[in-house]
Amino acid sequence: MNDSADLLKALKIDRNAPAPREPRRALLYGAAVAAVVLLAVLVGWLVFGGRGGPEVRTATVVAIGSGNAPASVLDATGYVVARRMATVSAKVTGKVREVLIEEGQRVAAGEVMATLDPVDAVAGRDLAAAQLSAARSQVAGAQARFEEAEASARRLQGLVAQQLVSQAQYDQTVAERDALRANLVTARRNVEVAADQLAIADNSVDNTVVRAPFAGVVIAKAAQPGEMISPLSAGGGFTRTGIGTIVDMDSLEVEVDVGESYIGRVKPEMPVEATLNAYPDWQIPGEVIAIIPTADRGKATVKVRIALHAKDERIVPDMGVRVSFLETARPASAEEVPRGVLVPAAAIVKRDGSDVAFTVVDTDDEGGTVEQRTLELGRTLGDDREVTSGLAGGEKVVLEPAADLQDGTRVRLAQPATD
Fold first, then answer.
1. Residue 254: is its pLDDT beyond 80?
2. 286 in Cβ contact with 307 (< 8 Å)
3. How confident is the model at residue 50 (pLDDT cuts 50, 70, 90)?
4. Residues 239 and 360 grouped into a single domain
5. What pLDDT was estimated at residue 290?
6. Which pLDDT band, with edges at 50, 70 and 90, does 8 fall under?
7. How far, in Å, CA of 137 to CA of 144, rounded?
8. Does any domain span residue 48?
9. Is residue 396's pLDDT more than 80?
10. Helix H segments across 21-97?
11. What whole-number distance in Å separates Cα of residue 397 and Cα of residue 346?
12. Which of 93, 92, 89, 117 is nearest to 245 (CA)?
């Protein structure tokens, strides 16, 4: 009986005993975890929020007259080509001593592109100069001998008349004089030949300098110092045929292949709109230069040349381009010509009593900078407003700009939602 009572007493809970303390190590661990989480949140805000500025939604301004442009009657694809493009080579075979061009460099007409080793050419010129000097000295000797023979002939002529010398002696003197006259003529002709040879030798030295035939941009550098170059490619694969290739960027145009079934729609001087594959949002105006009067039997196409009305560094040879041939539109009267652009009403706010909008400029991969524009408004067209001054077609405006958005603020562009 006593044993059972003792067992029950041992199982009794003592409610007056103090609660056990939580280990201090657990408290320190929890504090460290909280600090790490807070630091991660702060770094995330700096990386994704603080550096790029506030995130904004944008819309593109649309020119009111863009919908009234002439309709396309035919679309075709082609490439940008240059009417003047040349791979420049030397006129003679030689070793390249110096190359003065690089890809992308602009060169003027006559500018030196490269030089060849001129040792042989200079030696040939020195030899030609020495031969010219020798020929001139021979002329001086022949001239002196001829003058002496001429004087002897004149003296003997008087003596023959007085029968003091024989006729045979006089005839011999005259023959010698005539021979010396012929020698003098030959010597003078040799001087002319030697002078011509010196000019040729000078030209050979000049041929070791490779110059640009016209102004343009270097698109390829084909040779290096120490390599052999020849216009005839002598020596097989170890000999270059050119120094580099230059293109006259002012001669760029577009060539497209139009199917035989549709070539009747294309006319000379027909307006076109060209769009480069690299810049799909850039429409370049142009016109048809000519329709090449021959067809490609294999592709059943006719080649059409097109002139571009824009000169821009972004247009380079061999770029792919899509061309829309436009119908000739009737000229609109002054009252019919639309003006201004359409802007979403949500992009227009009041600042200091004026209607303004914020455009995004200097954009990059992370965002851009806003620029405040003062607007002159026109009609209300649904959810859009007509803006007659302050904005141009194609610009991006901020939708629902915040009250604290200021001119020059750095912003991030919101990414479009995807399904």
1. yes
2. yes
3. very low
4. no
5. 93
6. low
7. 11
8. no
9. yes
10. 24-45
11. 10
12. 89
Q: Shortest CA distance to 359 belongs to which of 350, 371, 348?
A: 371
Is residue 132 situated within a structural domain? yes
Query: Residues with Cβ < 8 Å from 344, sequence gap 6 or more?
Result: 59, 383, 384, 385, 397, 399
pLDDT in tens, 167-201: 777 777 778 888 888 888 888 898 889 899 999 99
pLDDT at 333 (0 to 100): 46
Helix (H), strand (E) counts: the chain: 4, 25
Report d(CA 197, CA 296) in Å as an integer: 51
Token representation of residue 390:
């302050």
Residues 198 and 138 in one domain: yes
386-403: average pLDDT: 87
Is position 233 within any domain? yes
pLDDT for position 15: 57
77 and 91 together in one domain: no
Residue 176: C-alpha distances to residues 316, 373, 393 (Å) = 76, 103, 97
Q: Which residues of 235-260 are buried (b: 16+ CB within 10 A; e: fewer)?
A: eeeeebebbbbbbbbeebbbbbbbee
**Domain identity same for 263 and 243:** no
Structural domain including 298 reads 69-83+249-326
pLDDT mean over 222-250: 80
Q: Is residue 279 part of a domain?
A: yes
Cβ atoms of 378 and 341 within 8 Å: the answer is no
- Same domain assignment for residues 302 and 376: no
The reported pLDDT for the residue numbered 6 is 61
CA 370 to CA 358: how far, in whole Å? Answer: 6
Angle of helix 119-161 relative to helix 167-206, nearest 10 degrees, comes to: 160
What burial letters (b/e) apply to 171-180, b meaning 16+ CB within 10 Å? Answer: eebbebbeeb
